[in-house]
Amino acid sequence: MGEQSGYSVVGKAIPLKDATEKVTGRLEYGGDIRVLDMAHGKILRSPHAHARITRIDTRRAESLDGVLGIVTHSDAPAWQWANCWHNHGGRILDDTVRFVGDEVAAVAAESLEIAEQALGLIDVEYESLEPVFDPIEALAPDAPQVRAEGNARPPTEIVWGDIDEGAAMADVVVESSMSFDSQAYAPIGRNACTAQWQGDRVTVWTSTQTPSEMRDATARGLGIPISNVRLISQPCGSSFGLWWIGSLQLITTLLARKAGRAVRIGLTQEECFGAVKRRHLEQSTGRLGVTRDGSVTFIDLEHVHDNGGYGLKPDVGFLTVDLWGSGPHGRFIDRGVSTNLVTAGCMRGVGDVTLGAFVERLLDMAAAEIDMDPLEFRLKNHIRAGGPLRTMEGEELDHLDQSTLPDGWPELGKLAGEALQDCLVRGAEAFGWAGKWAGWGKPSAVAGPKRRAVGVATGVHSCGTEDEYPVSALVRVHSDGGATLYVSMGRQGQGSETTQAQIAAEALGVSVDRIRVEAGDTDACPPSHGSIASNTSYRTGFATWDAAMDARRQILDTATLQLGSAAPDDLDMRDGVAFSPRDSTVSLPLEQIMATYRPESMTPPVIVGRTTTPMPPSLMHARYFAAHFVEVEVDVDTGEIRLLDYLATQDSGTVLNPKVLENQVIGGAILGAGFALTERLAFEPGTGRVLNPGFLDYKVMRAPDFPLDPGVLFGNYHDPVGPFGAKSAGEAPTTAPIPAISQAVFNAIGVWLDIPMTPERVLVALGKI
Amino acid sequence: MTIGVNLRVNGVDQVVEIAPHDTLGQVLNGRLDLNGVRISCEEGECGACTVLVDGEPVDSCMMLAVQAGERDILTIEGLGTPDNLHPIQQAFVDEHAFQCGFCTPGFVLSAKALLEATPHPDAAEIAAGLSGHICRCGTYPNIIRAVQLAAQELEQEAGDG
């Protein structure tokens, strides 16, 4: 593990900083916040997939005893809120509804029961509009238009080389298509928002992965200065991208102002599943050519994803292109299209979960045609360090100047480094691939109706991109030698408060127990990107490291003054003691440094480290990788697919906390495997209403459904930019399970399936039903 | 209409005025401010709101509060304190048996009932015994390890006692 062994905090499996609060039930999530004299709010939702509100009369509802205020589209500003990465675009409340469950109005009342009763007293007249639900139908020129901008986003196209030339070079060309149902975030726990106005200032408690963005949107939407909004983000249950900024928070804040009271709106499970966001419905078609020796000559892929009512994404990400884009010729096109379904947005592994699965399927079909082991095929074709990043070619690179970057940073536009080779080779050995692989379409064992087989696949995600918020952190050192790290992040279970504290502790040279982390209070934390797009360990971690190093410099400067002779560069700090490595008589504990008044002013030292090294906005060369191995058993009578064995390998650079990383890797694998096998939102024909908005009818994996003791291996790679060489972790492990399981299923029963691979789809493919 | 029900929660008797249709979960979380009774699905599927009633795990969203009158109700708040964690809680901390932590109180309480009925479960028995709970973060392997560790600790404690 090279340099990792020299760290005192980084790389240690310390318990989560909030572990005790979690096991004793004391952690306060967004929904747990109550304030004095709080009113209860409830949202009226559309029964129509697509309609214009022609009249809305709230008088009967307002006259109900205990009703404190009602907001409708006439109370909402014309301003359209736009979520980072095109996850949403629209007014807080609009006079057009775009899916069943879209927000129409909200009521604040003395009790939840009164608020619910009042919803039924709001008279709304709708002019019904033609809806459209199928993404392909929605692309047709004469399709009903969901949005003023039209349904179709401009196509995103990445082209290199010449497809025809690539086709001419190929010995074998395979062609296929694949479709994906929509995965639900299916959160455990439900979000709520509580807003309390004092004059023209508002305090908002909720759960969000992006506190800074939420604060700024609130200020803009409510027409008040940013400094008048204090957003306090609490931890949430599993999020996976569900809780960024949302209508919930903006409506609650608007409603609290109108009602003149603090208001809490808590969402139900049904609302969380069916009225916020979901993964896109996606369809891929494509071709891929190879030579007999297994070299990819071209790839040609067309992809369509639906954005639902309010998403505006032009593309779902092309990082997979880079993993397999080192071939000479290629073309990727993606089209985003609006539908009258609940909004679709970025869910963990966005794009790579789907595009990745399809590209890997084409690779598998090609490898099967030339009868090459899928492991060997991947080892031969995956991108190497220094390889071209197609997604960065063209305009994205124009505004970046390599000369402005610190020394030692990798070349932009090229893959910085990878340990995928290492992951594949060591993973195959640990899994026993060579002994289990029986050949394409050949089960390794047959017993009655049960067929066993193995599969291997890879996944990738970027951890270097930001949208509009640079990363920033503050480290304030206290008089007793402890410190608080102020860094804006989400706390959705990914352990960031712990790993960021480890980074700060390692950089400062203090025990991790002495670092407290404040992640959610925007009055305290500097604006920063938040926890999205696998940013936190890599980008936010860089900001944390930089701020801690700044604090350390200030501490050592102060120590130098107090010690008289030593220069700051002569001092080091470890375990909260500044010392001279050369002179054992020179040492000073941090609490003493902090307690000693400056002689010139008779004031105590004030030490606040801040991020001073700018991090360029687009470090797309930072990628982290996953290679997963699986053994499945398919029952050809029932169509059931069971996972018998699983091994996940991951390259996240330096491991900040092996248990945190293990949980992210296996948790990602289980989320991906759930989508591979059972998870799908069902939409009612004709209305698009979500038919299974809850755990009763939406099936996620439980403890017996995944191998009980899966293997985990980490790649050995030290990133030149990330904090102590670390990269991020959470999304790539979600992307590898689908193609790995799908390949294993093909080997077991000889068919390629759409996602999820439900028992019904298995039996249909086998001609049994 | 409200009725008074005597609820014995974490060893303390208290009469609570409730509506007949109030669920146990609503009363524990909403009225008695027991935040560790985590309300999520309200349809008996996720297990987050699990409490022990006379030692048996119950989805508190699926039991009326009136049904719990005069019975022993244990919530996570009554199991261990931050300074004195129950061995199962400590094992969950040590094994990183959670991520977001929302499901944790329910898993811990069901694990307690499981280990009382089956003191030495194997991994498959633990997985089956806890299959009424959803960990959406996917931390099941470490949950299974934590319950195995807790089983060892409890056995040692019993031996020492």
Task: Tell me what you see in this structure.
The complex is a heterodimer of chains A (769) and B (161). With 769 residues, chain A is of the alpha+beta class. Chain A has 21 helices and 29 strands. Among the domains of chain A are: 33-129 and 185-274, Alpha-Beta Complex (Aldehyde Oxidoreductase, domain 3); 418-463 and 622-769, 2-Layer Sandwich (Aldehyde Oxidoreductase, domain 4); 466-610, Aldehyde Oxidoreductase, domain 4 (2-Layer Sandwich), CATH 3.30.365.10. In chain A, the strands form seven sheets. Chain A has a seven-stranded mixed β-sheet with strand order 3-7-1-14-11-12-13, with helices on both faces. Chain A has a five-stranded mixed β-sheet with strand order 9-17-16-15-10, sandwiched between helices. A five-stranded mixed β-sheet of chain A has the order 18-19-27-28-29, sandwiched between helices. With 161 residues, chain B is α+β, with helices and mostly antiparallel strands. Chain B folds into two domains: 3-78, Ubiquitin-like (UB roll); 87-160, DNA polymerase, domain 1, CATH 1.10.150. In chain B, helix 2 (87-94) crosses helix 5. Chain B starts with a strand and ends with a helix. At the A-B interface, helix 1 and helix 18 of A face helix 2, helix 3, helix 4 and helix 5 of B.
